[in-house]
Amino acid sequence: MRCQVAIIGGGPSGLLLGQLLHGQGIDAVVLERRSRDYVLGRIRAGVLEQGLVGLMEEAGVAERLHAEGHKHNGTVIVHPGGSFRVDFRELTGRPVVVYGQTEVTRDLYDARDAAGLMTEFGAEDVVIHGADTDAPHVTYRVGDEARRLDCDFVAGCDGFHGVSRRTIPAALRREFEKTYPFGWLGVLSESPPVGDELIYAGAEGGFALCSMRNDRLSRYYVQCPLTDRPEDWSDEAFWAELRHRLPADVAGRLVTGPVIEKSIAPLRSFVTEPMQWGRLFLCGDAAHIVPPTGAKGLNTAASDVNYLYRALTGYYASGDRAGLDSYSQKALGRIWKAERFSWWFSSLMHRFPGQDGFDLRMREAELAFLAENEAQQRAFAENYVGLPY
Ligand code: RFL
Ligand code: PHB
């Protein structure tokens, strides 16, 4: 089989890239290790920047997002000294859109099907060959059958545990990593959200987040030790801990409901450099991870897709390699700013083991300054709604 761009990974990065390329007449095959149901069963991000919304529009897959997504003009931040709201619309002129990653992925798969585009599910043992030559190819297996895909370029969109990043020789790669001494216990609940906007709570007992998917589905998180397992937390224990970390009026409004998903995610900051080797280009979680506090994971994946899509379009339209040659530098420039914001906001909102009185006073002072200072809030809002591409 042959195509112009072999896309490894059928998560949001790979699917969005495939759909955008299709719009330019560039043909791409997506190789996904899992089944479609498995990919759609993962509950992950929920907040979309305008940049991602724009790319969904450009890909022709934004109809449901516009009908069902909710625009959020601000967010509430709670801290031991009180609570305050950051008004995105007033400070930046832009909202964010709450629409689940699962729905983004579903819309992209539906559009792929409608256009008759090729996706290989259950693609195992993917190996990328000759990425540093002019004729790369990918080998893989579906069931017992060995297959080969020849291509001009390979897009490594296979997430943090994929093969693409490790295809770049270790001697040419630099990796930067920070792990955090806690995780997020997340619950998806069939209950109306506790508020109209997201609430980030940096409580004495640890961080909590109130988010949502729609009017009937709430998404909540509490900071927990990395040693905890989801089965250690009964639903009652989760709701009690969440209430405990929220201000009394919010806790009083909380409506609980059946828990339809419960999982624990570790927090990590990670970047690999460069994001290109020859004709292999990394996108999304394959190249970088952020802790979820700033809601940047899916959105940084989208900004990579934006740069790579435009670079490939330029190349196929006129043979112009400038976009491809500057891809890694451009993508990393934006990534590091999102890494900084996610690291800063995570550090500010969580309780770290071993924090002493001075550390806690510094944290309170920083939150108090953010609560009262417009310049600081504007900087927060600009980062949260998304820096320009
Ligand atoms: P994905 O979504 O991981 O998709 C990669 C796809 O590649 C497939 N794959 C392979 N396919 C073929 N061959 C191989 N060898 C392969 N290895 C892997 C995988 O099956 C998968 O389908 O990466 P992508 O597309 O770059 O998208 C990135 C986003 O998914 C990610 O940044 C966010 O979801 C991060 N994230 C969150 N971000 C937020 O903004 N808010 C959140 O609340 C949030 N929660 C999360 C998250 C990430 C999590 N992970 C990765 C464990 C919660 C979790 C649990
Ligand atoms: C979510 O709704 O899952 C969500 C929202 C905001 C975040 C992280 C996760 O910062």
UniProtKB/TrEMBL annotation:
What GO MF terms are annotated? 4-hydroxybenzoate 3-monooxygenase activity; FAD binding
| Presence of the UniProt keyword Flavoprotein in the record | yes
Q: Which Pfam families match?
A: FAD_binding_3 (PF01494)
- Tell me the keywords, alphabetical order: FAD, Flavoprotein, Oxidoreductase
Q: Where is the FAD-binding domain?
A: 2-342
Q: Which NCBIfam families match?
A: pbenz_hydroxyl (TIGR02360), PRK08243.1 (NF006091)
This chain's protein is named: 4-hydroxybenzoate 3-monooxygenase
